[in-house]
Amino acid sequence: MNGDKNQINEIINNLKKGPLDANVEVIIGVPAIYLSYVKSIVPDTIWVAAQNCWKAPKGAFTGEISPAMLKDIGVNWVILGHSERRTIFGEKDDLVAEKVAHALESGLKVIACIGETLEEREEGKTEEVVFRQTKALVPAIGDKWTNVVLAYEPVWAIGTGKTASPQQAQEVHASLRNWLKTNVGAGIASSVRIQYGGSVTAANAKELASCPDIDGFLVGGASLKPEFVDIVNATK
């Protein structure tokens, strides 16, 4: 929940100046009220995502937006199950799965988020939590894995200044890929993109990007700053 038109213009102008690595797919997650505006000024090379949507096409769900509405204004991506939706707004695994299923059925591409809290990590439950959250998504995704990006975001490393070390992040990504291989299939496990999303900055992006199972980033606060360009170019 950041930005106004002035800040949005600054961010978009900064991205236009770039230059951005042409081999990197860039998707910006915009507050719903500004989606149409951003769509009208963003370069064709950058995708626009909503930060959330509901699990039905329309109805008595005051304050919500549907995948159909997003498609109607030309938005093709949505972020679902973000840690803040889970921890602040109480979205449970089954609700996130229902949202993912409906978004995919509606033709949207989904960045589906998973990750553990500090308490869960300290109790040694990281894998248990991440596997449980992913397991709920599997039937919702069905055969639409090509339209899904998984984003692992350790809740304890978001906005806290703490970052999982590249080793910690790689460990979780590798075990998640292994879980997918066993429970979904080897082809999907090797092809699905697993992003890392815990306080990514220009300073740590290069080292994180060099990990074999980290396929990209879900960038938080740093996406509002000029350094976002450096993060996009982290593998150059």
Q: What does this 3D model show about the protein?
A:
The chain is α/β, with parallel strands linked by helices and 236 residues long. Strand 1 (26-30), helix 2 and strand 2 (46-50) form a beta-alpha-beta unit. Helix 7 packs across helix 8. It is 43% helix and 12% strand.
- Main β-sheet, in a few words? 6 strands, parallel
The chain-level structural class is: alpha/beta
Name the overall outline.
globular
Major sheet strand order: 1-2-3-4-5-6
Radius of gyration from CA coordinates: 17 Å
Helical region count? 11
Pick out the low-confidence regions: none
Strand coverage percent: 5-15%
Termini distance? 30 Å
Helix content: 40-55%
Number of strands: 6
N-to-C order of helices and strands: HEHEHEHHEHHEHHEHH
Average pLDDT level: 96
EC number: 5.3.1.1
Organism: Iphiclides podalirius
Catalytic activity: D-glyceraldehyde 3-phosphate = dihydroxyacetone phosphate
Pathway: Carbohydrate biosynthesis; gluconeogenesis; Carbohydrate degradation; glycolysis; D-glyceraldehyde 3-phosphate from glycerone phosphate: step 1/1
Characteristic key phrases:
gluconeogenesis, EC 5.3.1.1, glycolysis, alpha/beta, 236 residues, six-stranded parallel sheet
Short structural description:
The chain has 236 residues and is of the alpha/beta class. Helix content is 43%, strand content 12%.
Ordered list of secondary-structure elements with their pairings:
Blueprint: H1 5-17, E1 26-30, H2 35-41, E2 46-50, H3 67-72, E3 77-80, H4 83-87, H5 93-105, E4 109-114, H6 118-122, H7 126-141, E5 148-152, H8 166-183, H9 186-191, E6 193-196, H10 202-209, H11 228-232
Parallel strand pairs: 1-2, 2-3, 3-4, 4-5, 5-6
Helix pairs in contact: 5-7, 7-8
